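ugh finaly. both done.
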Amino acid sequence: MTALSILVAAALGLLVAAAGIGVLRWRRARSIGAMLAVVVVAAVAATLAGVVAITVDMVIEGRARDVVLAVVGVGALVGLGVAYVVARRVVRESRRLVEAVRSAPFIAPQGLPSELQTIANTLEEAYAREQALEGARRELVAWVSHDLRTPLAGMRAMAEALEDGVVTDRRYVSRIRHEVERLSVMVDDLFELSRIHAGALRLSRSRIGLADLVADTLAGVEAVAAAKGVRLAADAAPAPVEADAGALGRALANLVVNAIRHTPSDGTVTLTSGVLDGSAYLAVSDACGGIPAADLARVFDVAFRGEAARTPSLDGGAGLGLAIAQGIVEAHDGMIDVVNSGPGCRFEIRLPLAPA
């Protein structure tokens, strides 16, 4: 074969390839089967163009030319047949995936080609996450609506009594102010949680010591513990971390307030900090009597309180404190966990140590 025939075959192949790409772009919204058919036709046409160039250059005529063209024709038919079978299977499995997506609940069909199987498994995981988030959202709306309705009803009754002159006790005014503060805290918690879930939590990190954070937290919750009759204890060893002191302090305070709320009078809540296994840790231990094993995995769920009745105590919130603490810790590239330990449970935060 001369160089001219090679150039002619290459030129014809490029023209066929360009035409095939143009058709694929023009019909890009068509099915995968149609696209495979275009690919096979382009490949056969390019091969045929090369054969034509060879026959012209070698002046093949008669029986030899017929044999060459017959071989090319058989190859084309085989290629088209294989493409048809493959295209039918791809289309059939794609339709199976579409039908599964349209059904509820979505369950990934099995036996798909590997790429489609990966897509199906990913969709199933995404569907499960979406269902979990939707369930948590509905649960949160129901519980927060109840928590908002209760103080609002009390405030309305007290306001009407004051307005009608039925009572003139200043304690009603004090009680209304207390309920307003509770509602304000709940709204702030909802706003903070929405920022965490939206990924809009902005951290201003600096080098801080966990022992100092423990001391500040104890000072902030001392009045709450005294009102409940709960003792506070600390065993804080230095542990430097790169963190937002305000956000991390709020997470720790949420854990401590939760521990105080569930610890009986004369019980003790202990805070510890230090370095363990190459990471910094903060731990809050209480005397709540432990958490049922079935509830341990749900402790950090939004609005979870672990109570049969969802009515909060007077000092209770909307059940968002632990969820907020988890979001803040994870935003610091840390982990938070809870285990039953001793007379109660132990919440532990793990954070990366600050570089030396």
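ok and the 2nd:
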Amino acid sequence: MRRGLKISLVTLTGAALTLSASACGGKKAETGGGGDDKKTLKVGLAFDIGGRGDQSFNDSAAAGLDRVKKDLNIQTEEISAKPDEPDADKESRLRLLATKGYNPIIGVGFAYTNSINKVAKAFPNTKFLVVDADQCKVEGTNVLGACFSEEQGSFLVGAAAALKSKTGTIGFIGGVNVPLIHKFQAGYEAGAKAAKPGIKVLPAKYLTEPPNFDGFKNPALGTEAAKGQLDKNADVIYHAAGGAGIGVINTVGAAKKLAIGVDSDQYNLPAVAPVKEQILTSMVKRVDLSVFDFVESVSKGTFQAGTKKYDLSNDGVGYATSGGKVDDIKAKLDQFKADIVSGKIKVPTK
């Protein structure tokens, strides 16, 4: 069930979400203080296209925000992006959050990178996080970029796909043809060939080309792409297509073939419930952890600007075991993981 939360920028002006993140009492510190034990935090989060309810990338960020509320006892505000909006709209949204005292502020998705780099300069006392920082680069002493080694997690699910394929042919469907998604494709293909050198990996199918980002949110596009790869004898298909991937999973599952989810463990999603037993695994990307880690660091006064990498070594990426379909190959997958962490295997990103 989709429940994308869209809050107009006007409604934010009346929000008064203030709760001390400190265990002890004391006077309220100025907004943006990073090293004070006594301060008030109001966390603002701007979602990527699809918003809360996309059952993939954004929902992983939402899970991190929910954990912030529960474990840190900090109140939050969230807003959604509009389809195909210009950077100027993202900047306006971020500036309004900052002006209203939201600190820290989180932009979910690489598309926020340039906007946060600009806005952060105007609000030096406010801490910002870019989830999936573009090319893993951010600017400013008050900006953190969370970067993920998607290729490493994709290597493991690629190995699983090859080991489980009965036809010897597997497929990959990317949402939008951008460098970030190329990392998923590269890792998947490398993992498949490492596990079974003779495996046939169909040419990758990308749903849209930028600036059209429907490939991350339109399930109908995923449905058509999946049909095309099934017709070419693929019996395991991995999607890196956000909300559009729901169409991939349902189509592959209905054909009694195996699908691989992305970003979150997609096995228990309501939208794919009828075909859940056809989900082989999911490449898990701990966007939730990056959101929580960032807010916690600001609340504790330990924030450090720059970039933070989430990979196999710190379980920032990985694979899901729900459904039990990889239980019999788990030892092999974990050996691949160990070899990647040790540096024995170098996973390509292109």
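summary for the 2nd one i guess: Residues 179-195 form the longest helix (17 residues).
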